[in-house]
Amino acid sequence: MSEKPIILEELEKVSETALSILAGIQEEEVLQTWKKEYLGKSSTVMSAFSSIGQQPKEFRPLVGQMANQVKQTLEAALEERAKIVLEASLARKVAQEKIDVTLPGREPLKGGLHPQTLVLRRIYSIFAEMGFQVYRSRDVESDQYNFELLNIPAHHPARDMWDTFHIDQPGVVLRTHTSPGQIHVMREQAPNPIRVILPGMCYRYEQISARSEIQFNQVEVLAVGKNITFGDMKGTLNGFVRRLFNADVRTRLRPSYFPFTEPSAEMDVECFVCGGKGCSVCKGSGWLEIMGCGIVHPTVLRNGGYDPEVYSGFAAGMGPERISMLLHKIEDIRYFWGNDYRFLEQF
Ligand SMILES: [Zn+2]
């Protein structure tokens, strides 16, 4: 019978030492060091396994058994201790990391109004001062309201001035201008006098470029009543333009053509970039085209429910995008609906 291998005693000792050290460990890193020392490759337990072959034959099973038992005991104890250490460290963190409510907060992103909203509001307030109300009309129109009732019958050459979005349903279009609102408001108000502006989005099937978009705002002006003259129109529009640009700006009216007004005119303002001398903005003319206008056509008045023998009126239409472009020297109309923060943040 051989002598009892020394490794058995060593295993017993190392197991005791390891367990007592483990019981005092408080930190995760120390646990890792312990694991390396008592369960790592060069630990007593692992050397015991590799020494089995060199042990006297009759003790080999015992050495193996004991090494296994010690290994399992140590592993279980480590797992148990790791849990305790983790819980303790969480509890410490919670206790230490209190929320400091006195710290300054993160500043939220400030929004702003869209440049078109700003210019529209400016237009509303100027007309409001002159007694005009805002009248909202629909974006989706019937062919009848968008064209026919405005004195633009089917096959009328003036229809070529508008490239229209049609839908599957015949006779339904996206409005190409805000003018159909004129008919809506007249039919609602007749025979009372009317003083309104009609703002909103219009849609045209056009090639998108720096100068034209498929959607854009328009603001229509309409006044209907007794004894309304071309002079009233000129005075009202001059008053508006002077409040919008500046009190001294000169204006002029040029004869023009629209199917729903007669006579019709274009209103120009003196170029405020060059003061009328001629520059790239006014293309050398010294004048900027700002809106179309005219005396409401008798047919349109009649379609709206007013007797043209008794009533008269004037109408005008302008593009707020164009006004913004002139006011802020914006060179490309596509910026307005491109949703680019770098552009929008500037207003
Ligand atoms: Zn100019």
In brief, what are we looking at here?
The chain is of the alpha+beta class and 347 residues long. The chain contains eleven helices and nine strands. It is rod-shaped and about 135 Å long.
Q: Can you characterise this structure?
A:
With 347 residues, the protein is of the alpha+beta class. Helices cover 40% and strands 18% of the residues. It has helices at residues 6-23, 28-39, 44-51, 60-96, 115-129, 143-146, 180-189, 230-244, 298-304, 320-328, 341-344; strands spanning 133-134, 140-142, 172-174, 194-203, 215-225, 251-258, 261-270, 287-296, 312-318. Strands 1-4-5-9-8-7-6 form a seven-stranded mixed beta sheet. The protein has a two-stranded antiparallel ribbon with strand order 2-3. Helix 1 (6-23) packs parallel to helix 4. The protein starts with 5 loop residues before the first helix and ends with a helix. The mean pLDDT is 90. Zinc ion binds at residues 271, 273-274, 278-279, 281-282, 286.
